[in-house]
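Recap from last week: sequence in, structure out.
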Amino acid sequence: LPAENSTSGQTDPDASAGEDALTVIAVTPETVQLMVESLNRYESYSRAVSVTYLSGEETLGTLTAQVWVDGGWTRTDTTLSSGTVESVIVGDGQLWLWYDGAGPVHHTAANDHSADLSQRLPTYEDVLELDPDGITDAGYVERDGLDCVYVEFLQPDLDCRYRYWISMSSGLLIAAETEQGGELVYSMTSREITSPMSQQEEIFTLPDGTVLHS
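Predicted structure tokens:
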């Protein structure tokens, strides 16, 4: 990766020792998981997420979500296809869920995947846990103007192909696709990432006014 203040381009073996240079590290199916593991997610950010489920040329449903993350806490407000707004807060090993900005609030234990699942995202750990033998492609690419690590994985027993784009600057999954039988069945995109998260008062607050995190 580029050293600080380095210029773009391949390393020139004839360059003098005092000049800045860029060493290009190849990302391959064998090394991509180490690369992804080395990335750090923003600790505080907000963003918009859109998820679409498809069957052939038919759109089964589209979800849009606004997400806030801060200090290990995540809030997701998802507008479902029906127009209902589902709110989920995950933090301190707990999960709170309610609809349309009012009670009742459902409260249960959370796990390491709960925050990602509340956004209908493939969990970040999915990429790290892939069987390396199933990774068919990997590399550096640009997606929506962002430099990303790209991973493609084939699961023959389900006839599924998964694609992931992970931002190198934020460490966040910014796009994902799933194909089954050669047809796209799932698509996720992320936009408007702001770090630190856009300041909104009482974002981690339950409908009854209980402040979970500030």
